[in-house]
Amino acid sequence: MSILTVRNLTKRFDGLVANQDISLTVEKGSITAVIGPNGAGKTTFFNMVTGVYQPTEGSILLEDQSIVGMKPHAISRKGIARTFQNIRLFGNITVLENVMVGMHNHLRVGVLGTILQLRKFKDEELQAQAEAFRLLEYVGLADHLNDEADSLSYGAQRRLEIARALATKPKVLLLDEPAAGMNPRETKELTDLIHKIRKEFDVTIILIEHDMKLVMEISEHIFVLDHGEKIAEGNPDEIRKNPKVIEAYLGSGASTAQAVSTIGG
Ligand SMILES: Nc1ncnc2c1ncn2[C@@H]1O[C@H](COP(=O)(O)OP(=O)(O)O)[C@@H](O)[C@H]1O
Ligand SMILES: [Mg+2]
Asked: Relative to the CA of 44, which ligand 1 atom is closest?
């Protein structure tokens, strides 16, 4: 069963075509990767799926509902959450507060409710805090609740972004280069964390990633973008062997040995 269906998706910026006529289907419950050289259009794709950019053409369906034209907060409520290639945390508030910001969308009591039902609001706030704590424990940041987000290592900041995204209770979690800046040990832990999240949160995961070892190890399905177009899709074995993919990464004339070391053998 598919959870996300994209048809003929195009995004133009003035003269530049960042995504061109992309059609794809993401299986519910899968770990799916989107790969491709720098500038291929991967982040633009995520930006359209999350409502940051409006497509120039094409459709995006979450389950069977169109989300084109919806604002990012509305899409977040529908169940799509993300992390960012360039980490976007509130650097000078605490780790716990950063996760609670992620939940804010989902607290049921609005401004009027706050006035009329102060007590209920307080209950919700406490619940939110407990939930945030649980998520931070989950991503291994329980010892850093009261640290400022800025003080965390790069890898820990990426895990905090994941906790914040999970706080919105997503159906689909988009991770934009989650291993960027991580050392090999952190990357291995991230692999385990992503598997655990998929299982325990019943969420579909779509990741953009350059670490081919991670991609090949973790993905059940891979889409390859190049110059804004989808040039290939398949399982890791199919992608490794695909001549178009090898060429996109290395240019024509590259040896298979070079390709294997880039795309993974
Ligand atoms: N807001 C924007 N305005 C103009 N050009 C953009 C904008 N966002 C992305 N692009 C361009 O679209 C292309 C694809 O970028 P991007 O989606 O970030 O690629 P990737 O994430 O695969 O590296 C690049 O040429 C980039 O410069
Ligand atoms: Mg990008």
From this structure: 17
pLDDT in tens, 159-189: 999 999 999 999 999 999 999 989 999 999 9
For residue 230, the CA-to-ligand 1 centroid distance in Å is 15
Q: Tell me the CA–centroid distance for residue 37 and ligand 2, in Å.
A: 9
| Section 196-208 average pLDDT | 96
Q: What is the pTM of this model?
A: 0.91
How many whole angstroms from 19 Cα to the centroid of ligand 1? 9
Q: What is the pLDDT of residues 127-142, one digit of tens each?
A: 889 999 999 999 999 9
Question: Which of 16, 53, 85, 207 most suits a substitution to test ligand 1, by most atoms within 8 Å of the C-beta?
Answer: 16
Which long-range contacts link 196-199 to residues 24+ away (Cβ below 8 Å)? 196/138, 197/162, 197/166, 197/173, 198/29, 198/31
